[in-house]
Amino acid sequence: MPAGELRQSESSEAEAEQWLWAQIKAEARRDAESEPALASYLYSTILSHSSLERSLSFHLGNKLCSSTLLSTLLYDLFLNTFSSDSSLRAAAVADLRAVHERDPACVSFSHCLLNYKGFLACQAHRVAHKLWIQSRRPLALALHSRIADVFAVDIHPAARIGKGVLFDHATGVVVGETAVIGNNVSILHHVTLGGTGKAGGDRHPKIGDGVLIGAGATILGNVKIGEGAKIGAGSVVLIDVPARTTAVGNPARLVGGKEKPSKHEDVPGESMDHTSFISEWSDYII
Amino acid sequence: MPAGELRQSESSEAEAEQWLWAQIKAEARRDAESEPALASYLYSTILSHSSLERSLSFHLGNKLCSSTLLSTLLYDLFLNTFSSDSSLRAAAVADLRAVHERDPACVSFSHCLLNYKGFLACQAHRVAHKLWIQSRRPLALALHSRIADVFAVDIHPAARIGKGVLFDHATGVVVGETAVIGNNVSILHHVTLGGTGKAGGDRHPKIGDGVLIGAGATILGNVKIGEGAKIGAGSVVLIDVPARTTAVGNPARLVGGKEKPSKHEDVPGESMDHTSFISEWSDYII
Amino acid sequence: MPAGELRQSESSEAEAEQWLWAQIKAEARRDAESEPALASYLYSTILSHSSLERSLSFHLGNKLCSSTLLSTLLYDLFLNTFSSDSSLRAAAVADLRAVHERDPACVSFSHCLLNYKGFLACQAHRVAHKLWIQSRRPLALALHSRIADVFAVDIHPAARIGKGVLFDHATGVVVGETAVIGNNVSILHHVTLGGTGKAGGDRHPKIGDGVLIGAGATILGNVKIGEGAKIGAGSVVLIDVPARTTAVGNPARLVGGKEKPSKHEDVPGESMDHTSFISEWSDYII
Amino acid sequence: MPAGELRQSESSEAEAEQWLWAQIKAEARRDAESEPALASYLYSTILSHSSLERSLSFHLGNKLCSSTLLSTLLYDLFLNTFSSDSSLRAAAVADLRAVHERDPACVSFSHCLLNYKGFLACQAHRVAHKLWIQSRRPLALALHSRIADVFAVDIHPAARIGKGVLFDHATGVVVGETAVIGNNVSILHHVTLGGTGKAGGDRHPKIGDGVLIGAGATILGNVKIGEGAKIGAGSVVLIDVPARTTAVGNPARLVGGKEKPSKHEDVPGESMDHTSFISEWSDYII
Amino acid sequence: MPAGELRQSESSEAEAEQWLWAQIKAEARRDAESEPALASYLYSTILSHSSLERSLSFHLGNKLCSSTLLSTLLYDLFLNTFSSDSSLRAAAVADLRAVHERDPACVSFSHCLLNYKGFLACQAHRVAHKLWIQSRRPLALALHSRIADVFAVDIHPAARIGKGVLFDHATGVVVGETAVIGNNVSILHHVTLGGTGKAGGDRHPKIGDGVLIGAGATILGNVKIGEGAKIGAGSVVLIDVPARTTAVGNPARLVGGKEKPSKHEDVPGESMDHTSFISEWSDYII
Amino acid sequence: MPAGELRQSESSEAEAEQWLWAQIKAEARRDAESEPALASYLYSTILSHSSLERSLSFHLGNKLCSSTLLSTLLYDLFLNTFSSDSSLRAAAVADLRAVHERDPACVSFSHCLLNYKGFLACQAHRVAHKLWIQSRRPLALALHSRIADVFAVDIHPAARIGKGVLFDHATGVVVGETAVIGNNVSILHHVTLGGTGKAGGDRHPKIGDGVLIGAGATILGNVKIGEGAKIGAGSVVLIDVPARTTAVGNPARLVGGKEKPSKHEDVPGESMDHTSFISEWSDYII
C-alpha cells in the first residue's frame, strides 16, 4: 500500500476505534445505571479508562495474572504492545465487530469485550504472537500458558491469525504452531488445527478467508481449507478442502461428492450457516 | 398445583433439604476428623455454615470471584437469590441426588457439593438464569462469563434447565440461548447444544425428560430429542430423535434403522447405560 | 527386581534427575538474562529452588491453590509426597523427556515444566493417586477437583498412569476411575477414557504401552487397547483394539479391515505419527 | 426506658441512619461522577449497597480479611451482627457525626466511612465486643488481632466504648481489657489506656464523658478521668484527674495546680481545644 | 556447656516444646468445637500441623507475604530456619510462656501464637537475625521491611534479642541495629531503642536481663540499662540506668534521686509492675 | 528561574536520576546473584523496569493496593503522575540520597527504595498531594487512607513537604492538613505535626529547612520551628522554636534557656545529631 493510502487507512481505523469505544462506554454507562451491583465492575474495566487499548490491557492483565505473573506486569506488557502497534488495535476492533454481527447471542460490544473468552484469548494471543516474532519466545510461551489455563484456549504464539475472526464459545480450541487462519473466519469451540507427528516444520492447517469451522471439528496436518469452505461440526479432516465446498463427517466427505461437490457462493465464516447442507447430505438420515 | 398441595410439596422439599444438609455435614465432619489437612477447607466451605444455601453461596462466591468481581459481592448475590427462591434450592437438592445415584465415582453428597464442576456450574447457572428472566441481563452475562472461565462450562443464562440434571465431568459443555433441558437428563462432557447460524430466534435443541447424551455429542439447531432418547458419544445430531430411541455416529443414525428403530423402555438419563446398544449397532465392528 | 538392582536403578534415576534439573536451570538462567520481564517468574518458579521436586511443588502449589485451599498447604503436600517417593520423581523426569522428544513445539525442558498443562496436571494427579491409595480419599478428590478446574483436565485419582506419558494440549481430557494407562503413551486433548453406566466396578479402558490416542477420541468401557495401537482423532471406540493396529472413525473401524488389519511396527505413542494411515484408509476420501 | 420511649428512640435512630445513608450515597455519587478512576471503588464500597450496615460490613470484611480469615466469612459476621443490633448501628451513626463535627479535615461522611481508620477500627471493635460478651471469645480475639494488624489500633474486645467517640488518626492507640470510655470522648493517636502489671482484675482507666485526650498521652491503671477533663498531648497520667480540669506533662500536673486547678466549662471532647491552656501553664516556656 | 549437658538441655527443650504444642492443639481443638466460624482458621493455622515450628512457619508465611514475596517462599524460609536451629524454637517456647505468665489479657497459648503481633514480629525477627549473621543481608532486610509494614514493629535484623521476651501490644516498637535486649525483658508498645546520629558503629541501647520498659519510653544511644531496671512509660532516657533502679519522666530521673536511688529486688520484666513507684515519685502529683 | 536555567537544572536532575537508577540496578543485580531466594522479588520490583519511576510506581502499586483499589489502577496513577512531573522524580532522588547519607543503617539505595516505609509513604504522599492541588480530592484521600493503613504513616494530602526529607522508621508519623515541611528535614517515628482544635484554617506547624525532629516529638498548632532547629525526642512543643536552637522535654524548654539559648551552626536535619545537647541540658541527670 502506498504511504498515503496507508496513512488514510490508519486514520480511518483510528476513527473506527473511536466510534466503537464511544459505543462501548455508552453501553457500559447504561448498564452501570441499571445495575448498581455491576457498576463497580463496569467502572474498573471500562468506564475509568480513556481508550479501548487501556480497557483491554487492564481487563486482560487482571484476567491472566497469577501469583507468579503479576497483573501490573501483564498490564504494562499489554498496554505497551497495543499502544505501539495500531494493527493490533485494528484487529481487535474488527474482531469485536465480527462477534457483534455474527453471534445473535451477543447483546452489545461491551458484552463481547468483557465476557467473550474467545475474543479475549484471541487478543492476548495477538500480543503473544508479536512477542514471538520479536524473538521474545519465553515470554510469549508464558503468556500462551496463561491463556490456555484461564480460557482453555490453546493457540500457539507462532500461529498467524487474520482480522475479523470469531472464536465462538472457544473452550477447547487448539491451534498449532504453523497454522494460519485467514480473515473473517469463524471457528466454533473444541476445534483443533493440529499437527501430524513429532517432526518439526510446517505441519498445521492453513485456513482460507471466510471459512466456517463447526464445533468439535478436527483438522490435522499441513492441509489447505479453501476460501469460503465450510467444515461440519465433529468432522475429521486430513486432506485439502476446496474453496466454497462443505466437508462433513468422520472421516470427512465433501457434500455432493468428491467429483462434483456442491458449491455455495456466500462467505460462511460471516453467514454462520451451520446446517443448510443437511438436505443435500445423503447419508444424514436418522 | 392447588395452593394446599404446593405448600405440602414445599414443606417436603424443605424436609428433603434438611435431610440432605444433615448428611453433608455428617460426611464433612467425618472427613475433617480423618484428614486434618483438609479440615480447614471443610469447615470454611461446609461445617461453619448453617444451611445448604449458605454453604453453596459461600463456595460459589469464592470459586467464581475475580479481582474485579469480589467474592463478597457474589456471595451476597447467591445468598439473596437462593434464600428468596425455594425452587432453586429444590433443584440443587435434586441435582445432588442425581449425581449421587447415577455416578458410581461419586462417593458422597459433600464430594459432589464441593468438587463437581458440573454441579457447581449448573447451580450458578440457575442463579444467572433467574437474573436473566428478571431482566438483569448484564449481571447474568457477567456471571455466565465467570462460569465459562472457571469451570469451562458455557451455558447461556437464558437456557432453561430442569431438575435432577447431571452434568458429568462437564468440561467443554456448551448450551445455547434458546436450548431447553428437561428433568432427569444426564449430559456428559464436551456436549454441545448449539445453534444454526447468525439469525436470532428459537434456534437451539430441546432435550426431553430422561435423555442421556454421551460425551462429545453435538446437537445443533431447534431439534427435539424425545423423552428417554439416548445420544451416543461423539454423535452429530441435526434433526429430531424420537423418544426412547438411540442415535449414534457422525452423521447420527438411529440404532435399528430409521424405519423401525430399536426402542428401550428405561430412562437412560437415570440408568446411564452408554453402551448396551453396541450389539445392535451393525456398523460397529472394529 | 533384586535389592541391588533396585538401588542401582534408583541411583541412575537420581542421576537422570540431577542432569535434567541442571538443564532446566541453565535454560531458565539463559531466558532470565534475555528477558528481564520474565526473570522474576523464572526465579520464583525455578531458579530460587534447589531441586526439581521443590520447583515443581512450588509451581503446582501456586497454580492449584484457591482462597479455601492455600498455596502453603498444597506446597507442603506436594513437597512431602515428591520427597518421600522417588518413583514419582522418576515419573516426572520420564514425562518431561517424553514431551521434549515427542512434541516439536516444546522448545526446552523448562518450557514444559512451567507451561504444559498436561504435564502439570499429570504430576498433580500422581500425587492425588498416591493419596488415594493411602486411603486419603477426600484430600485426593479435593486435589482432583482443583486440577479439573485449573487445567480442565479431569483424571480420577484412582486411575493408574505409567511413565513417559505425554498429554499434549490436554484441555478436556477425561480419565475415569478404573482406567489404566501404560508407559510411553501419548494422549491428545479432548480424549475420553470413560465408563459405561452407573454400575461401579472395573468399567474404564486399559491402554497398553506405546499407544497413541488422537485428539477428541472417545474410548468407553472396560476395553483393551493393545500395545502400540493407534486411535485416530475423533474416533469412538467401544470394543477392544488389537496391538499395533489403527482404529479410526465414528464408529471406529480397523484400518485394513477387521479380519486382516494393517499392522505397524513402531511405537506410535513415541513416534506421534497421526496421519500416515490415510492412504490405507479406503473410506477417507473427501 | 419504658418500651414506648424505646420504640420511639429506635425509630428516630432509624431515621437518623436513613438520613445519613442518603447523604453518604449522594456524596459518593458526586465523587464517582467527578473522578472516574475512583468510581469502581465507590460503587463497590457504597453505591452498590442498600444500607449503611451492608456498606460498612462489606468494607470492613474486605479491609480485615486475610488469607486465613476470608472476606466472605467476615462480611457475614459483620452483617449479621449489625443487622441484629440496632444499638451498634446507632453508635456508628453517632461516631460518623462526631468525626464530621469535630475534625476540620473531614470533608464528608463518606470520607469518614471509607478512609478513617479510627472510625473503622472502632466499628469493628464494637462487633468484637459484642462477640466477647456473648462468650465467643476466640472469635472476638481473632478479630481484635486483625484490627491491630490492619489499622495499628489495639482495643481489647472487652473494653467498653460509648457513642459519639472520635479516634482521630488512631494509629498506635492501645485500650486495655477493663478500660471504659464514655460518650462524646475524643482520643488522638498513640494514646494508651493501659494496665499496671501482671495481675488480672479491673486495672485500666475509666474515661468520663466528653473527655479529650491529646496525642501520645499515656494513662495507666484503674484511674478515673473525670467528665470533661482534658489530658495534654504526651502526658503520663497515673492517678485520677478531676472533672473539667486539664492535666499536662510527664509526670502530669493539673494546670492551675493541684489545690485549685483551673476549670473549664465546655466539653473538650467535642470542642477539641488542644492548646488553650498554654497561657495558664506556667512551666511552659521555651 | 559440655556436650553432655547440651544434649540434656536440648532434650528438655524438646520436651517443653512438645508439651506446649500439645497444650496449643488442645486449646485450638476446644475453640474449634465451640466456634465453628473460627474452625477453618484454627485448622489451617494450628490443627492441620504436626509441630509448633510448622504452625508458626505457616502463620508467619501467610501473615508476612505480599504480592511480590509469596507465602510459599516465606513458609519455606521460616520452616527451614526453625527446623535447623533448635535455639530459635526454644526461644519461641520461652516467649510464649513469657506472654502467658505476664499478660493477664492472654487467655491461652494459642491466643498468643495466633494473635500477638509482638510475639509474631519477634519470632520473624529471630529468623531475619539468623539470616543477617549468615550474611544474607538483603533477604534479612526484605523480611525486616515486611515485619515493619505488617505489624508496625521495626526491629533491625542485626539487633540481638534474648529469650523469654514479651513485646506487649508492640505497635510502634523500634529497635536499632546495634541494640541488645537481654533475657526475660518486657517491652511495651511505642518503645524506641534508638541511635544517636548518622555515624555508624555501636550506637544503640543495651538492655539488661529482667528489665521492664513502659509504653512510649525512648532510650537513645549506646547506653546501658542495668539488670532489673524499670523505665517508666513515656520516659526519655539518654544515659545509663543502674541495675534495679527506676527511671521516669522526660527527661528521665531516678526515683529516689541520683545519689541514693530506690532499689527494688524483683525482676520487673517478669512482675510487670508499672506503677508501684508512684508513691515514691515525689514529683508525681496531679 | 529563567527558562534556560530551568532546562539546565532539569537536565542535571535527569542525569542525577539516571546515575542513581544505574546504582540501584547494579545493587539489585549483585543482591539477586548472591541470594536466589530474593531474586524474583528484585527482578519484579527493580530489574525488570526501565526507569526509577516505573520501578517506584510498580512497587507502590503493589504495596498500596487492596481488593477494592486494584494494583493496576494504582500503578497507572503513579506512573502517569511521576512521568508527567519531573519535580516529583527529583524529590524522590533527593529523598533517596538523604536516607543514604543520614541513616547509617541504610546499606544501599535499593534497600531504601524497596524497604523504607518512610521513603515509600513520602513518595506516595507526593502523588496524593499533586492530586489534591489538582482538586482530585476524593482520590487523594483514598490514597491517603491506603498509606495510613499500609505504612502507619498518616500525612494529610494537603501537607506540603520539601525535598531531601528523611522519615526514619516512620511508623506513627502524623502530619496535618496545613503543615509545611522544608527541605533537608529529618523526622523520626511517632512524630506529630498536629492541629489545635476543631476550627479549620491554618492550624498546623511550619517546619523550617534542615530541622531535626526526634522520635515521639509532638508539635501542635500553627507554630514555626526555625531553620536548623532541633526538637528532642519525646518533646511536646506548642510555641515557636527559634532557628538553630534545641528544644527538649515535656513541656519543651530551650537548651541554654529561653533568654540565651545555645545555638548550633550545623544543619541537624542532615547531621542527625540527636544527643549532643545532653551535656548542656542541666536538668538531665538520672
UniProtKB/TrEMBL annotation, chains A, B, C, D, E, F:
- Root EC class: transferase
Q: Where are the bilayer-spanning segments?
A: none
Known SUPFAM superfamilies for this protein?
Answer: Trimeric LpxA-like enzymes (SSF51161)
Q: Which GO terms describe its molecular function?
A: serine O-acetyltransferase activity
Q: What are the start and end residues of every segment in region (Disordered)? A: 252-273
Biased segments, Basic and acidic residues type: 256-273
- GO process terms (BP): cysteine biosynthetic process from serine
Please provide an example of a Pfam family that matches this protein in its UniProt record.
Hexapep
What EC number(s) does this enzyme carry? 2.3.1.30
**Superkingdom:** Eukaryota
User: What Gene Ontology cellular component terms go with this record?
Assistant: cytoplasm
Give the metabolic or biological pathway.
Amino-acid biosynthesis; L-cysteine biosynthesis; L-cysteine from L-serine: step 1/2
Domain Serine acetyltransferase N-terminal, by residue range, is: 20-124
Q: Give the record's family classification.
A: Belongs to the transferase hexapeptide repeat family.
Protein's UniProt name: serine O-acetyltransferase
